[in-house]
Design goal:
The chain is of the alpha+beta class and 149 residues long. It contains five helices and ten strands; from the N terminus they run H-H-H-E-E-E-E-E-E-E-E-H-E-H-E.
Length: 149
């Protein structure tokens, strides 16, 4: 984690790292080959990442999920201003782990931290890139259609 934080400490560095990966990846070769064959190519991905900056305390039992940007479990305790909550997951087509389980999703650039070892986790995960939650980066599914000239 520390190496990634050092290489991609902000959005500009993260984009630069991504561009460097792309230029040296098999994906670029595939795109070039498709072009030479006259193929139309559609590329998409599931979602992006977000640089998390602010912690939000959450309390749950041992069965609570570990993700930093969303939690599912029973008896979750949290600040309602920081989350999008789904107390009945089936209403938004999510699975119900147990009859009393719910989901919460971090808003904006927030990430969840437990009260035990709170300061350690906050300093460790602040300014890292994470998946999940409710943000523009997570809600928009990017795609591109490439046609050879």
């Amino acid at each position: 984690m520390d190496v990634i934080k050092e290489l991609a400490s902000n959005d500009k560095a993260y984009r630069s790292l991504t561009q460097s990966w792309f230029k040296n990846s098999p994906l670029l070769e595939i795109i070039q080959k498709a072009r030479s064959l006259g193929m139309k190519l559609i590329i998409t991905t599931d979602h992006g990442t977000i640089n998390v900056k602010q912690p939000s305390k959450v309390i749950g039992d041992r069965e609570t999920s570990l993700n930093l940007r969303y939690k599912t479990g029973r008896s979750l305790s949290y600040d309602a201003r920081d989350v999008l909550e789904a107390k009945d997951p089936s209403r938004i087509n999510l699975p119900s782990i147990t009859m009393s389980s719910s989901f919460i999703f971090a808003k904006n650039d927030l990430f969840f931290a437990y009260p035990n070892n709170y300061n350690h986790y906050v300093s460790y995960f602040r300014n890292t890139y994470q998946h999940g939650g409710v943000s523009l980066e997570e809600m928009i599914i990017p795609f591109v259609v490439l046609q050879p000239r």
